[in-house]
């Protein structure tokens, strides 16, 4: 069983994601800071930024906080904006592109633990 946990926004460190262009990630709650069975992360995608086609070993769910950007999932493109929610199944090929002039931001919830990410083509 995990203990209650509160983290202040000022305590979250954001780092660039190596395989992507213009994507930063901050782990809001995760195993490394006392989280339970889930990890909650916040991503920002800069204007002109993109994430190449890839798969994850685990499923993840996302909630768009701000901006507008395109998400490709299994060959279909989806325009998303603040308030939209996504479910990306484990093993689904997906990618992101921000053609706008404002950053996009989203929350991403995943099961805690290791996740193997494989870049596609």
Describe the structure.
Helix content is 0%, strand content 57%. The protein has 121 residues and is mainly beta. It has a single domain (26-119), classed as Jelly Rolls (Sandwich), CATH 2.60.120.10. Strands 1, 2, 3, 4, 5, 6, 7, 8, 9 and 10 form a ten-stranded antiparallel sheet that branches. A hairpin with a 2-residue loop joins strand 5 (68-73) and strand 6. The radius of gyration is 14 Å and the shape is globular. The model has no long low-confidence stretch (mean pLDDT 93).
Mean pLDDT, as a whole number?
93
The CATH homologous superfamily is named Jelly Rolls
CATH fold description: Jelly Rolls
List how many beta strands DSSP finds. Answer: 10
Task: Sum this structure up briefly.
The protein has 121 residues and is mainly β. The chain has no helices and 10 strands. It has strands spanning 14-16, 21-29, 38-56, 60-66, 68-73, 76-81, 85-88, 94-97, 104-111, 117-119.
Q: Mind sketching the topology for me?
A:
Elements: E1 14-16, E2 21-29, E3 38-56, E4 60-66, E5 68-73, E6 76-81, E7 85-88, E8 94-97, E9 104-111, E10 117-119
Antiparallel strand pairs: 1-2, 2-3, 3-8, 3-9, 3-10, 4-7, 4-9, 5-6, 5-8
Protein name: Cupin 2 barrel domain-containing protein
Domain Cupin type-2: 42-109
Pfam families: Cupin_2
Which features would summarize this protein structure in a list?
121 residues, mainly beta, 10-stranded antiparallel beta sheet, 57% strand, QDO-like, RmlC_Cupin_sf, Cupin_2
